Amino acid sequence: MSAGLSDRGSECAPQRNRDPRKEEEPLTLITEVKARRRLPSPSLARELRRSAGLSQARIAKELGVTRVTVARWESGTRSPRGSLMVAYVELLEDLREAE
Q1: Do the Cβ atoms of 18 and 12 come closer than 8 Å?
Q2: CA atoms within 13 A of residue 12's CA, in its CB half-sphere
Q3: List of domains in the chain
Q4: Residues 14-43: pLDDT tens digits?
Q5: Do 93 and 99 contact (CB within 8 A), yes or no?
Q6: Which pLDDT tens digit goes with each residue over 4-20?
């Protein structure tokens, strides 16, 4: 290991915990379209979260948004966009697989 560097790999947070709005690489159109097609309905998203025993606040913390934002996504008043949509879709798919 070189001087000044420490082995902190185990302390690194999963990628999803990073602020998706500050990603280094721009979101490609194709990635966004694919994520939009995989985005479940608001009621299914709510059911996936509930069946995993998670609160809106916990989902919000994982994605770096507010609880109110998640509530709006789940009620259908708003939809996630861009990198947040991609991160939300990936999280919901992970919850579905964990069932």
Answers
A1: no
A2: 7
A3: 37-99 (1.10.260.40)
A4: 445 555 555 556 889 999 999 999 999 999
A5: no
A6: 443 333 333 344 555 55
